[in-house]
Queue: 2 jobs
Job 1
Amino acid sequence: MQLAAPSFLADLAEIVLLTIRVTGVALAAATLLGVPVGALMAFSRFPGRRLLVAVIYTGMGLPPVVVGLVVYLALSRSGPLGTLGWLFTPAAMTVAQTVIALPLVIGLTMTGLEAVDPQLRLQLRALGADRRQESWAMLGEARSAVIAAVVAGFGGIISEVGAAMLVGGNIEGQTRVLSTAIVLGTRMGEYSLALALGGILLALAFLVNIVFIRLQHRPPWWLGR
Amino acid sequence: MSAPLYELRQVEASYRGRRILEVDQLAVQQGETLVVVGPNGAGKSTLLRLLNFLEPASGGTLHFQAEPVPHPAPIELRRRVTTVFQRPALLNRTVWDNVAYGLRVRGRAPGERLRGLLRSLDLEGLADARAGSLSGGEAQRAALARALAVEPEVLLLDEPTANLDPYNLSVVEGMIQQLRAEGSCTLVVVTHNVFQARRLADRVAMLHGGRLIEAAEAAAFFDHPRDPRAAAFVRGELVA
């Protein structure tokens, strides 16, 4: 690992910032897509719904390395998305991490909303709420579960290494994130460095989870108090 | 006589292929209190959901102010009617937030009127209490307050005093009596209680087995019921 002393802090900062960027964008995408889809799944009844739920539940246990392989093949030069030229870029890592987090956010949002009294939705509609208003209120009621869904999505991607390594390539200064840097450090026998990076990764995860827990217990007004 | 507020003709409602309500003809007049009676499973709650435009009829026509109601009903139409349900489901927020909900979804700010409403339902001291901490009676009063907050043209009440203690029953029924006296909105009240039906009704409709079996002015219904099942209900007998 090329983390020479003079540039050590700069290299470290770059790795940490890229980790935050890739995971942050992937989590935001998974949340923006997954929460509405989870709500739609919870509130809708249609033929094939059970099958779709089974697919989502299966997706919640997707091995990251398999996701990485599929995204790799899709983004490789001969793949259907090869023209994007995203392979071995942070964009490819973001796509892979979004795919990993999405079923977790959808599945847990859906089960959280299904736990809310279904009578409430009918009664809010009777009070004059339109579909958007009633869905928003129901999400507010299931706030803890929805935030837990996002936390699970975050947990699934912040420390994953298989997909990031496959589609990012662990290129120094370009696609090296904390998890891939830890793997490299371990392979090179730099255990102290790997452990230190592991500590930073854990601290980052801890800080983000503190924010999520705060949102669960003291939500801003727009999440419903 | 002006056109009825609601007019139902050959209305049917089904659930999973099973017919649960059949009403050949029923009219609700503007400003009246129609009490709907009948045993469990008679279709009373289904009728209220139709009148609140929450569910479509599977057959027949429903007119509101002489206009056929499409499904889904336009939001402006839905917002003229609201329901107090037998088992209130409240948001896990304060009583104030719950009571103000209907106003907020209409883009209106809750004002002094809301405080007066809470006072008249003996909820003023509970404005900041979480809905989860309320007793059943307090929750039902909060549900009535949130319905009245939106000043509905039609208020539908589904067994609003079932399972309430005498104090809560008197507060809720007192408010219904006040609304009747003011004549500010049309009321449709579902009840099992023959005494309550006598106290509240201008007209009575009786459902049995999903069918409307009798609809008449209150005096005629209670003094000269035509259907034997209506007669049994008036005598206070168990109608199965």
Job 2
Amino acid sequence: MSFVLVQVIVGGLLLGAVYALFSSGLTLVWGMMNVVNFAHGDFVMLGMYVAYVVYTLFGGGPLLGVPLATLLLATFGIVVYFALIRDIMKGPMLAQILGTFGLALLLRYSVFWWFGANFLSLPANLVGGTLDIFGIRIEAARLLAGVVALLVTFGLHLLLTRTALGSKMLAVAEDQTAAQLMGIRPDSMQAVAWAIAAGATGLAGALIATFFYIVPTVGETLGIVAFVTVSLGGFGSVPGALVAGLLIGVIESLSGYLIGAIYKDIVVYTLFLGFLWFRPQGLMGKS
Amino acid sequence: MSLKHLVGLLSAAAISVALAGHASAEDKIVKIGAVFPLSGNAASAGVHAKAALEVAMDIINNAHPELGNFPLAKNAGLAGLGGAKVELVFADNQGSPATGQNQTLRLITEEKVVALTGAYQSGITLTASAIAEKYGIPFLNAESVASNLTERGFKWFFRTTPIATDFAKVYYEFLTDAKAAGAKTDTIALVHDNTEYGTSVANTITTIFKEKGLPVTLDVAYASNATDVQSQVLQLKEKKPDVVVMISYTSDAILFAKTMQAQDYKPAMLLADDAGYSDPSFIKAVGKISQGAFNRSSWSVGPPGSATAIIAEMYKKKSGDEMDDTAARQMQGFFVLMEAIDRAGSTDPAKIQAALKATDLKPDQLMIGYRGVKFDDKGQNMLASGIIIQLQDGENYVSVFPRDGAAKAPVMPYKGW
């Protein structure tokens, strides 16, 4: 295999890990509550701005920015749950779509108003520049994001399958009334699920901010990929999102290099639709 | 109806006409529509355009004797219309050709604007100006460079900016000069997005370079607003072209700069076609890792105390950023439109159109480095021109070509970071 091709695949895997990281919060909310959060990309955008503010105010890198963004977004998630989601969940699907879409615009234009439309960026060496391993170049910031993506996926998977809290959340997702009869309060479980999901998006945003530009509309740019990742992985499946993210990243990278960047989206979406035709529930989704 | 009634009615009508006439002479407003990307991914460009036009409006509506003989500055309002004030009505094209078209329609039919300017992206100028053409409202474009915009046989479309054909020639002269100075320019790569702007500029450069015997050897097209550009950069890194021409909006331009650094790729010469590379937020975000990038421009700030320096200062106060080429071209275009309306002495669209056709501005009446403003039959400014600038220190562009009148000598090869 040619040398450049290795670089292309490595780059694709790192990009895929970012897609996976970006999507974990979205798939979690779907799996736990059957809510499609159209404001997801804008939650990530908020995480990116938290990282930016942390850097400009305190000169802090991801060591400070990531925990803070996770915490702030988790809190914000709870607020959003009680102020908006709890009510629109009772309505038809259309109410969820419009409600979360409205929230997306509110967040986007609030940030627009406060920070302006300028593109912002964190310094490239904030996470230690670029590693050169036998001529294969790996940005430290992307590597960190990739490692964290793996950890987050693993952690969320353990949380859902191995802990009492996870079982309770899954019980609520399965059958609210039955869960209530077992003494589980659906409201608090869903608030917790929403907090974990929003926290994960904050974490993703703060990490992505270390190598991507920051702008109020960035959630829109990255958001479409998140929806594709989640549906390919299977709505609600956290490990599925990881596998799907990596797959999309590598396919995109390879087709961009071998066929041409202008065609890569055509390749990705053709394969995506073809796959859904055979397996509509996605890679690891429940049928 | 009796005679008495008729006389009564007629005199009432006469009084109301007289009153209306009086009122309009007293506080006449000239409404101009401005269509720009105020939200969406190009909002940074749109917000800067808005600031530029608001500064121009201030210069026109208030007395600015400090600007000397700069047209429309000395007295308050438009002298040709009895001191009428200009009112700008901004509309958001959201970065979408369809929205740009709808907003233009709204400005014409509901806001009743007498002329229009905009719309930044060539693809949106294309649709917005088609509506103005249909309604017979003058549309002045000051910044879109796709050549075909003035090839549609439109009667109401006027463009002040130099276009892709002009710049392709400047690029060719610059590369020839660089070659004479010892730089290699044998292989040329074009990197461009798939928008109206990206494809049309790439086509024009390819055609003109080919005519002059300087063929483009690699064409890297990509979908705008990319999430990742690694494969494009690796393609360049492998093919090693001597010159890389970048035709990209801001978001992609930033991503390219970051990825080039990550992949440790430096072309021997990087020549950018304005757009993203002129956006002040590009320079703030990645200027320090894009040192030595060449770019095109028609703007230079001028000596302290000059009209251009004062205007640049006013713009910085308003927007918080240094004046860049795009904002300057937009402001200049707006002044050209207002100078025509002032000369027409009327807000009748046909009279404005006639005045625009008769426009003949000299270099000393401009705030930008054109050789003048005079429109050909297609509505294109025949005297538009530009220079090559370089981001030598990663913070400010300096003029480097043509060599007479340039602030600095061009520095090669591309330094990057």
